[in-house]
Fold this sequence. Notes:
4 copies of one chain form a homotetramer. Chain A is of the alpha+beta class. Helices cover 31% and strands 20% of the residues of chain A. The model of chain A has no long low-confidence stretch (mean pLDDT 95). Chains A, B, C, D: Belongs to the chorismate synthase family. Chains A, B, C, D: It is an enzyme of class 4 (lyase).
Amino acid sequence: MRYTTAGESHGPEEIAVIEGIPAGLHITQADIDEQLARRQQGYGRGERQKIETDTVTFLTGVRHQLTLGSPITLNVHNDDHNNWSKIMAPDDPATSENTLRKVLRPRPGHADLVGGMKYRHHDDLRNVLERSSARETTMRVAVGAVAKKLLSEIGVDVHGFVVNVGPAKSDLNDLTKYHDLNELRLVTESFPTRALSAEADAAIREVIDQTKRNANTVGGQVQVMATGMPVGLGSYVSADTKLDAKIARAIVGINAFKGVQFGGGFDNAEKFGDQVMDEIFWDEKRGFYRGSDNLGGFEGGMTTGEAIVVRGVVKPIPTLYRPMQSVDIDTHQDHKASIERSDTTAVTAAAVIAEAMVAIELAKAVLDKFDADNIDRMKEQVERYRDEIRSF
Amino acid sequence: MRYTTAGESHGPEEIAVIEGIPAGLHITQADIDEQLARRQQGYGRGERQKIETDTVTFLTGVRHQLTLGSPITLNVHNDDHNNWSKIMAPDDPATSENTLRKVLRPRPGHADLVGGMKYRHHDDLRNVLERSSARETTMRVAVGAVAKKLLSEIGVDVHGFVVNVGPAKSDLNDLTKYHDLNELRLVTESFPTRALSAEADAAIREVIDQTKRNANTVGGQVQVMATGMPVGLGSYVSADTKLDAKIARAIVGINAFKGVQFGGGFDNAEKFGDQVMDEIFWDEKRGFYRGSDNLGGFEGGMTTGEAIVVRGVVKPIPTLYRPMQSVDIDTHQDHKASIERSDTTAVTAAAVIAEAMVAIELAKAVLDKFDADNIDRMKEQVERYRDEIRSF
Amino acid sequence: MRYTTAGESHGPEEIAVIEGIPAGLHITQADIDEQLARRQQGYGRGERQKIETDTVTFLTGVRHQLTLGSPITLNVHNDDHNNWSKIMAPDDPATSENTLRKVLRPRPGHADLVGGMKYRHHDDLRNVLERSSARETTMRVAVGAVAKKLLSEIGVDVHGFVVNVGPAKSDLNDLTKYHDLNELRLVTESFPTRALSAEADAAIREVIDQTKRNANTVGGQVQVMATGMPVGLGSYVSADTKLDAKIARAIVGINAFKGVQFGGGFDNAEKFGDQVMDEIFWDEKRGFYRGSDNLGGFEGGMTTGEAIVVRGVVKPIPTLYRPMQSVDIDTHQDHKASIERSDTTAVTAAAVIAEAMVAIELAKAVLDKFDADNIDRMKEQVERYRDEIRSF
Amino acid sequence: MRYTTAGESHGPEEIAVIEGIPAGLHITQADIDEQLARRQQGYGRGERQKIETDTVTFLTGVRHQLTLGSPITLNVHNDDHNNWSKIMAPDDPATSENTLRKVLRPRPGHADLVGGMKYRHHDDLRNVLERSSARETTMRVAVGAVAKKLLSEIGVDVHGFVVNVGPAKSDLNDLTKYHDLNELRLVTESFPTRALSAEADAAIREVIDQTKRNANTVGGQVQVMATGMPVGLGSYVSADTKLDAKIARAIVGINAFKGVQFGGGFDNAEKFGDQVMDEIFWDEKRGFYRGSDNLGGFEGGMTTGEAIVVRGVVKPIPTLYRPMQSVDIDTHQDHKASIERSDTTAVTAAAVIAEAMVAIELAKAVLDKFDADNIDRMKEQVERYRDEIRSF
C-alpha cells in the first residue's frame, strides 16, 4: 500500500490516490465523511470549517461499495474555490487581475520563506502556502479512514485524543477506566476538545478562549492508541524495517508536529531498567502476554501485541493575528508577516490526523506481511498467523 | 544514497554497503576508525569494548583513498567470533555440539520473544538476538563516518552529545558558550560521558556507577546538532518528503530509542505562538536569517539554514544482571530472563550513533538535490545554490 | 519524479498524479490534449474513439499555467460513463439491476481469468477488465505529455512511429532522410498509420482493413527515438541504475507489448564485434562523438549522447469478434470468450504510448541527476554540465 | 527481497548483500558454488576463468546452513587481486608507482568513455571499467542461486540455455522432447555451449573458434524458462506492478543485453490474433489451464501458470583484440582502443546470468505476495493459495 495526496488550499480539488488496497473491502463515502467531519469539529478551529463541510467522492477503484484492487482515488471538493477561481486558475495565463492577493511577507514558523527560496517562487509566496497548509491533512484523514476500515476487518482499532493544550491537561490515569478503545472513543469524542474528561475539556476550552482573546495561538499534545495488532509486524533486522520508526516518520511528517514518542517515551530518560521493561507471562489460553505496556507496544521495532501508544507534540500555529517580525521579499524592508485566515489551535484536529497517520502505517505493515490482493484471503492468513503465535 | 548493514553480533563479520556516494570523495579507513573508536569509548560500556577494537576495511568502491562512484563495502571483523566460531558457523550443519548456548528465556524489552515468533526461531532465540544487538550500530557509525566526510566537503558539521543520564543532567544553557560545533566537540569529547561540562560529567558518572552497583541499567537523552546545511532541503509538498520526518525515522530506528524531537520539541506543548516562531530578518551580507532557532532548523519539513537540533531518548538497556520475569519458550515455565553480557547504559554511545544517523539523512538530502556522481560537481552546484539563496 | 494512474474504463474518471515536477514549468491543458488526440487518431481504432474526445483538466499542482512544485493531478472524464453510471457506480450497493453485464467468460490473452483468480473477482470479471484495459494508457500519454514538455526545455525531443503492422512494413532506411525528429514527426504524423512513407501507410491500411474483414486482429512494431539527451544519464554501477533497463521495463509494462530492444537489438545475435560498436571520434567543437549509432544511444546503461532508439513489439489485440475457446467460470462449461468492443489493432496508438513511456523515463533520469525543484535552476545545471562534457 | 552487489574486477572482493530472505531456508556455500562454476564454464570464455575458481563465503545472515531472516552477505574473493594489489589498493594514497596501467583510450561499446565523463574519471578510465565489467555478474549469479533455492522450496524450476551464437542455432522445436526443465537441463548443461543438441553445440563451437581466430567477438541469444510459478504473481493494476516488465528490466540490466522478449516475442509483429492467444480449458483435476503457451506465461503482466519463456539478446563483447577506432582522452589524438583481457563471446555464460536474474525477479514476486519471514510459513501459504486457484 502506498498513497499520494495532492491539492492546493484554495485550488479546485483535494485528491488522494491509494494503491495496494486489497479487492473486496467494503467501504462507503460515508465511512470517510465521518472521519472528515471529526477533523473539522475540533474546538479552536476557525471560520473555514463553517464555510464548507468536507465530503468525499470515489473517482476510481471502488465499485458498488467494494474495492476493486485497482488504485482508489478520493476527491474532496474545495467549496471555497469559488471565491478564488481566478486567483487559483490552473489553466489561465497570469494577468494583472488574477495575480492579486500576492503574499510577499513570509510568516515565521511556516514554510513560506524557505519554500519560496527552494522553488524560486519569488513572485508570490502563495505558491508555497497553498500547498503547505493544514488543508492538505484533509486527504490524510481520508486515506486514514480507508486504512481504519481495513484494520477493522482484522479487529484492529485505532483512536486519537488530546493530552493537553498549553497548560490544561487530561489526566492520563483516566485511561485505566476504559476496557477498550471504543469506550474511550465515546468519551473523548463527546468533548469538542477531545480531552479525556469533562474537567480537562473545560480547562482546555478556557485556555483556547483566552489564547484567542490574546490574538495568539497555542500548542499541545495528542496521543494515539491502537489495539489488536498482530504480533511481530515490523522487524529488527534493518534500520528501515522498524515499524515504530515508520510511525515516527508519519507523525513528524504532519504539519506542526515537532516530536514523537512511544510508551513512556521521554520519561525513559530518567528511568532505570527494572522500571521500564514489560515482563513476560504465559497462560494456556492467551499464550505469551505482558504484565504492563511501558514500551508502548513495541520491542525491537516490532509489535508486541500490547496496545500501541504513540504521543505527538504540536507546536502553536504560526499564523498569528498579531503578526511577528518579517521582511518583505520584494523590498527587503522589515514588515509584519502576512495574515492568512487561521485557527487558534490545531491540537484538537491534530488528534484525528495523527490517528489517521498511525492507521496508515499499521495498514501498510499488515499488507506487507499478509496477502494484499483480496481482503478475505488476507483475513484468513491473519487468522492462521494468530493461531500460530498463540501456540508458540 | 542508500545503504544496508549486515552482520550478527558473534558472527564472523559486520558489513555495510553504501550506494550512491559520488566519485572523488577522499576517505580513509582511519577516518572511519576514528568514529568507531568514539562509539566504543563511552562511559558505562561493558567488557566487550575491551575485548576488541573495531577497525574498518574497504572491500569495494574505494581506490587510492578516493571513492569510485561504485558501491562501497565497509567491513569490521568481529574479533570475538573466535570464541563463537562453531556456535555461529555459517556453513556447518547443526550438531549437538555447536547448538549449545541456546537462548530459550526471552529478555523483556528486547526483541527475543517477538522475533522468535515472527521468524519461527523456536529452537534458539539466539537467532534473533545475534542480529537485534547493539553490535549492529557499529556499521551505522561506519556509514555515518562516510556521510560526515561528504558533508564536511560542503561545510556541514554534525555533532552529538549527552543531555542526561537518569537524574544527572547537562545544563543546555552551556551551549551558548561555543561558537561552533567544533568548539563544542572539543569539550564534550573530552569527557567519557560526552556531557556538556565537568560537573555534568561527574554527576553522570556517579549515576552510572551507582546503577552498575545496583545491577540495574539507566536511560538518558542525547542531542545531535548540525550546522551549515543548505537552505531548503526536504520539502513540504508531500508527507514523505519532509526531512525532519526522515530524521525522526532514523533516530527512532536506533535500538532502544523511544522518542525524538526537534528544537523545543515537547516543550511546545505548553507554549504560545509568539514564544515559538523564529522571526525573519535580512541584511545585505547574509541575506535572510532568523533571530532565534526555536524550531530546531526546520520549517515545513525543510532546512531553514539555522542549526539543526535533534533530541532523542534512550531507554535503559533491557539486559539486566538481576533479570526480570520471563517464561521458558520450551517448557512454558516461569523463569528469569537470560543474561547476555551487557553494559550499564547505552546513552554515551548513543550520542555517537544518533550523530551518525543524522549525518546519513543529511547526506541523503544533499545528494537528492545536488549532483551525486562527482563530489566536485556537487560542490560547485552547492556553491551556486548558496549564492542564489543569499541573493533571494 | 514518480506518478500513479487510476481509473476504470467505464468508471467516471481517469486520473494521474505526478510528483516531483519542478516548479515553474509552463504547461497548458492544450499541450496535453494534443497528445491525447494523437493517441485517439490511429488507423484501426474502433468506435470508442468516435464517442468521446479526451480532454484533460488540471485538478492540482498548476496555477496560471505554471507548475507549483506540488503534486499535479490530471483528470480525463470518461464521457461513456453516462451509459454505465449504474453498472459502475462507486457508492451504490450492488443490486440485481446494477450487476447486469457480468463477464464470466474470460478472453484468452487478456487479464480476465488470472486477474479474477488473484483478486477473487469470481462474481464478475468486469472488475478486472475495467482496469486492465487500453483505456488506462490515456493517462500514461497525459503524464508523458508533461514529461515531453519538461524535456523540451532542455532540447530533448522524443518521437514514436510505426515500423510494421503484420506483414506491411516501413522501410527504416527512410530514416536517414530526416535531419531531426521534428522533420520525421511531420511525415509520420501525416499518415493515419504513423508509417514512415506513403507506400508503407497504404500497405498497412490494407492489412488492417483486411484483418478487420476477417474479424481478426493484428500485431506490429513501433519505434521510439529521442535526441538531445545529456550524456551519462543512467549508470553502470548497479543492475538497477541502468537507464536502458528502466526503459525496457516501461515498454514491456504497456498493455500488449511482448518485447523491447535497443539499437540493432535482436540483430546483434548474428553480428560480430567489429560490426556493432560505435567508434569514437573527437573534434574541437563537438568534443567526443560517434561515427554510428548501432547501440541505440546506450553504453553501460548510460546515454552516449547519440540518438536513443527503442523498438517494441505489440501483440494482436486479444478481444476477437470471432472469439476463441474459453470456459464459463460459473458453470465450468466450454464457451466462446466474451466480446467487448475493441479495435483491430493497437499498433498505431501504441507508437504514441511508447513515446510517452520513453519520455517519462528520460524525464525521471534528468530529474534524478539535476535540480528537480525549479525548472530554470535545472536548465542552468544542464547547461553547465553540457559544457563540462563537451570539454572533457 | 532486495539485494546489492559491490566489487571491482581486480579489487580484493566481490560482495552481495541480500535482504528479505525468509528465515529457515536451507542453503550451503556449495549450492552457490555450483552456480558460480556454471558461469565460469561456458565455451568461449577466456583466460581469467582458468586463473581462478570462484567460491563463495557466507559472511552474515546464515547460521548452520539455515538463513536467519537477517541480511545475508555473500563474498567471492578475487584471486587475481594479488596481481593488482597496489594498483587497486583501497587505502593507499596514489603514487607514481601504483597508478601505472592507466586506461586512457576508451573502448567503443563499453562504458569507459561515458562513465569517465559522468564520474569525472579523467585521470584513469580504469575507475570505470573495474566496475563496468562482466566480473560483476558473478555476484548476480550468487544471488540468483539463493533465489533458485528459495523457489525450489515451492516447486519452481528455472533454467537458461543458448539459442544461438552468431549464425549457429539451436532448433527450438527440440524443446518439446523434454518433460520438464530438469530433463532439459541435463541436456544443455552437457554441452560446453549450453546448446539444445549435439549438432547445435558443434556448430556453435565452430563459430566461436572461427571468431577467435579472426580476433573478433560474436553475439547471440539465450532463453530462460521457468515452471511451477503460482498463478497471478505480478499485476495489471499499474505500469510498475507488471512482473514481465520487471523481468524485462532485469534482463536488459545485464551487461551487453540489448533486448528481451516473452513467448513469441517479436514474431508477434507479424501475427494475427487467432494465432497468438492461449485458449482456456478446464478440468476437474487441474482446474483452469491453457492449450498453448504463445504468450510465454504472462497475461496482463501476471503469471498464467504456464511456463515462463524469456529470450534475451547479447551483443558481441566490445573488447576486441583487433581494436576499433578511439581517441586518447588526454591528448585527444586518434588511437586504437585499449585492450583488456577478454573472451570471444559472453553468450554461453549469459545463459546462466539471465537465469539468475529471472530467478531473482520470480523470488521477489513470491515474497511480495506470501509471508517473507519464515520459509515454512511461506510454503504453507503458497500451498493454500494453489488449492484455492485450482478450485476457482
